[in-house]
Amino acid sequence: MQLSDFLDFDAITSRLSGGNKKSLLQQLANLASHQLGIDAAEILATINEREQLGSTGFGQGVAIPHGKIDGLNRIYCMFARLSEPIDYKAIDGRPVDLLFLLLSPPDAGAEHLKALAAISRVTRHRPTLEKMRGARSRDALAAVLMGADERDAA
Q1: How far apart are CA 86 and CA 22, in angstroms?
Q2: CATH of 3-153, one of 3.40.630.30, 3.40.930.10, 3.30.300.30, 1.10.620.20
Q3: 7, 79 contact by CB (below 8 A)
Q4: Residues tagged active-site
Q5: Which tens digits make up the pLDDT trace of 31-66?
Q6: Where are the domains of the chain?
Q7: How far apart (Å, rounded) are the C-alpha atoms in residues 90 and 9?
Q8: Core-most of 55, 80, 121, 142, by most CB within 10 Å?
Q9: Backbone phi, then psi, for 116, in 5-degree steps?
Q10: What angle do CA 28, 33, 34 make, to 5 degrees?
Q11: Cα–Cα separations (whole angstroms), residue 121 to 48, 49, 117, 128, 153
Q12: Which contiguous run of DSSP H or E holds residue 102?
């Protein structure tokens, strides 16, 4: 599975103001709600429930808040780069500035894990992270993400 299979390139945000983790997750839920037509409160409750199990900030300034949403008919992902890193309680203690919000239907267990793995592959590649942080526009970020997809497919 590749990012292009589930990433909404129209929902890439290049300068989201995070504030703190709580307000950031609310902003992400609102953006996803607008794109998907699903109640933002339901999205927020789902990702907050997952965060209570342990932080989805998995290191190197990257977080992947995720969850399963009733009524969703496909795996959906959006990407946001923050204008300023925030304390996200990541496993390595570093502040987070790159986020992938991943939402899946309740019955998409294996596909959900494959999508998480695809995001993880992209974000473990340090040069890709540097390019993501250096991209100056949404289109430039999309190009970096597509390039990472192509690199992983090779």
Answers
A1: 11
A2: 3.40.930.10
A3: yes
A4: 66
A5: 999 999 999 999 999 999 999 999 999 899 999 999
A6: 3-153
A7: 25
A8: 80
A9: -60, -40
A10: 100
A11: 24, 25, 6, 10, 11
A12: strand 96-104
